[in-house]
Specification:
2 copies of one chain form a homodimer.
Chain A (H helix, E strand, L loop, with lengths): L4 E5 L7 H11 L3 E7 L18 E4 L6 E5 L3 H12 L7 E8 L6 H4 L1 H11 L4 E6 L12 H14 L5 E7 L7 E4 L5 E11 L5 E11 L7 H6 L2 E8 L8 H5 L21
Parallel strand pairs in A: 1-2, 1-5, 2-4, 5-6, 6-7, 8-11
Antiparallel strand pairs in A: 3-4, 7-11, 9-10
Chain lengths: 270, 270
Amino acid sequence: MKKPTILVVNDDGITAPGIKSLIEVMQEIGNVVVVAPDGPQSGMGHAITIGKPLRFDKVDLYPGVEMYKCSGTPVDCVKLAVNKVFKGKKPDLCVSGINHGLNNSINVIYSGTMSAAVEGAIEKIPSIGFSLDDFAQDADFSHCKKFIKTITLQVLTKGMPESTLLNVNFPKGANLKGIKICRQANAKWAEDFEERTDPYKRPYYWLTGVFENYDKGEDTDVWALDNGFVSVVPVQFDLTAHHAIPVLNSWDFNDMAVKKTSGADGQSLG
Amino acid sequence: MKKPTILVVNDDGITAPGIKSLIEVMQEIGNVVVVAPDGPQSGMGHAITIGKPLRFDKVDLYPGVEMYKCSGTPVDCVKLAVNKVFKGKKPDLCVSGINHGLNNSINVIYSGTMSAAVEGAIEKIPSIGFSLDDFAQDADFSHCKKFIKTITLQVLTKGMPESTLLNVNFPKGANLKGIKICRQANAKWAEDFEERTDPYKRPYYWLTGVFENYDKGEDTDVWALDNGFVSVVPVQFDLTAHHAIPVLNSWDFNDMAVKKTSGADGQSLG
């Protein structure tokens, strides 16, 4: 088999230990190209940079690895990689991470790590995001490596279902029980803002919060991680709530609604 | 009926004409509270501000409207509104926009306007995002108003299906044919980066792109807008690709996979 070409991205920035660990695993599998933010971009979600220009420069951090840093968001990095590095000849795989901190449950939507992988999938590149339950700069990623290699080789062998990517999260610590395929738990952040006063007597606010899980299912990523498993959630970027289409078609829009054409969701009401 | 309390947000910034139009419609329906970015935040997706603090100040722009500006993202605005303005006593509705520019199809994922509405829905507030196919600062929003009022009153009367919000897009111009309930079209941006050279001879890049629609369905938002309809797409924030769970459970993870627990997606393989 020809060695696959693998794009590696992240949101913690190109010098983060997490991306170094991911590069090391990917070097065992294929030819690695890294395009990563020049600094931390955590919590950037699916942001793109449209109001200002981007810087994009080749760097030389690790032997044998083609690397670029970018002033923009994780999603910008994927777009720059596709357009400026691969020039339309797509890589065989896009991996993002390893994130310093979990991206399970609702965190998938705030995460720059996962949004980079989502962008890879939008570009029809098989894509995986990896995250570890440890925010520390010196987090130990060593126990993740064999799982990352196995999951990555399965994706390269089997191919991803259409318009789908993987969200892989690791508990902290070495005693992992195995891999569990999950759904995203129904949970959210109960946010709080810590108010402080600057030296000029003006208030400012730090976003903080507590993660609240409303989901008792044993088929969720939260349950899997709480119980020592590696969670693997298939993720999609069609955000349509298909089940709600018939409901909306039953609403009363004062004769403004047009229902003559039939659709893919069975709402043929003509 | 008690007048509803309505949170109005956007991503074009608190002084944008689009939010002024939306405030005018909402004042006909309820008590309006505005929390909006202090400047443009287009393309910010679901970004939140975690690496730096936020500024958050009361402003007085329009008579009879309680208004706050925030230095952060559209999603930050919703979080600040819930925590600092409503103090946990949620508003009856969250509306976002009117965006200067479409947020149909895949744009839902890049859009600050839609991400603010998604955040409202995560907070269990009935939420709607509105966008017009006109990027101009002096865009004419007048033809959108009667549709916005009708849709908003239906949401307040009927309530939203659980964990669902609405993505409403308007064509430019006054001759609208009506409202059409749609799904998100399968489309993407074919990006390009325009390279320029700064006065110091260093390159920089502007993100540009062409919207490519791969979807011939007449039940999509792209089709509806192309044919003069107001598109209404129900949107969800559970990103799980449920259909892919059985596929992944059939993969070979070198005995690392644990399949003993049954799940909500019928992958009981124990």
